[in-house]
UniProtKB/TrEMBL annotation:
PROSITE patterns: SAM_MT_TRM5_TYW2. This is Class I SAM-dependent methyltransferase family protein. GO terms for molecular function: tRNA methyltransferase activity. It comes from Halorarum halophilum. Transmembrane segments: none annotated. Gene3D superfamilies: 3.30.70.2580, Met-10+ protein-like domains, Vaccinia Virus protein VP39. Keywords: Cytoplasm, Methyltransferase, S-adenosyl-L-methionine, Transferase, tRNA processing.
């Protein structure tokens, strides 16, 4: 059906939409559309549209779904969801605020919008956040049937790794003994425990371990998950030769802990080693490092080489699933 629409450049779309909304001229039953750099905003009465706007007749589909931030802004902004928090990544404060307002005005399910205010830094791998809408940075994130309470200002957590975590967890069998060397709030450890593994999970961040213990309780696995606060290198001797599976998700420096992983490994153990390497040789450095540390004690078999995601220009985040079999 052809209806009157205000046509403006995309960059003016949100301001125009707001003005039309204030004048009660928006046609809420029709979809906003974008074409060739222009945004078309359906209106209810062409005769009362302010004179500075161009009004055209255009086919506009009936609105059947929810209002999205894209429709409000006239373009697709970059953001991700973590629990009830929407995370944007905008260098321009004004644009960040504009995106936040659109997210909150839309039907996108969230209570808070934050913008990244620093890079990940420090031993705990946390960053600063600017809260643009809502209040607080604690949330409950749900992933593959599990829930994780966390505060993004106090712990590291990446929702982008959900598929990769699920891939690893699906390999776990009931009765296994699994050690998560850098556990955070438990996104690997807790699902492994849910599958029936006996899990030991370690982290140096005290707040992460507090959340880990709470999340073990929330997911009903407190009995088969041991949470340890501290440097894994200082507790490994207590679990010498214990593990059937070791998760090493500390991409920038996991190789520095390979001797500890080998200490933890039992007679037949799978290491999940996460690494960041140049795209020209993404897996070679990690494999060579494992073989060097394993020495003559273990036969080393690389079972999976997987690019998890792009990390930076010409750099990739990878995972090596490596089986160590004691000779």
């Amino acid at each position: 059906m052809r209806v009157p629409c205000v046509r403006v450049p995309v960059e003016s779309g949100e301001a125009t939409r707001q003005r039309l909304a204030e004048a009660a001229l928006l046609d809420g039953d029709r979809e906003i559309s974008v074409e060739d750099g222009d945004i078309f905003i359906p209106v209810t009465d062409a005769d009362t549209v302010p004179a500075e706007y161009e009004v055209v007749e255009r086919v506009a589909a009936e609105r059947t779904g929810q209002v999205t931030p894209d429709e409000i802004l006239g373009y697709e902004p970059s953001y991700e969801r973590l629990g009830d928090i929407a995370i944007v990544d905008e260098d321009d404060p004004a644009e960040a605020r504009r995106v936040a307002d659109a997210i909150m005005e839309s039907d996108f399910p969230c209570e808070t919008v934050v913008n990244r205010a620093s890079k990940v830094r420090g031993e705990y791998r946390i960053r600063d956040w600017e809260v643009l809408a809502g209040d607080g940075t604690e949330t409950v994130h749900r992933e593959y049937g599990h829930e994780f309470l966390l505060d993004i200002a106090e712990v590291y957590f990446s929702p982008r790794l959900a598929t990769e975590r699920h891939r690893v967890v699906e390999q776990v069998a009931a009765g296994e003994r699994a050690f998560d060397m850098f556990a955070g709030v438990g996104p690997f450890a807790i699902p492994m425990a849910v599958r029936g593994a006996e899990v030991v999970a370690c982290d140096v961040n005290p707040r992460a371990v507090e959340y880990l213990r709470e999340n073990a309780r929330r997911n009903g696995v407190s009995e088969n998950l041991t949470a340890i606060e501290g440097d894994v290198r200082e507790v490994a001797a207590e679990y010498d030769g214990w593990a059937d599976r070791v998760v090493m998700n500390l991409p920038h420096s996991a190789n520095e802990f390979l001797d500890t992983a080998v200490t933890l490994a039992g007679d037949d153990c799978v290491l999940h080693l996460y690494d960041i390497q140049h795209e020209d040789d993404p897996f070679g450095p990690g494999e060579r490092a494992v073989r060097a540390v394993a020495g003559d004690e273990y036969e080393v078999t690389v079972e999976t080489e997987r690019v998890v995601r792009s990390y930076a220009p010409h750099e990739v985040n990878v995972c090596l699933d490596v089986r160590l079999t004691r000779v």
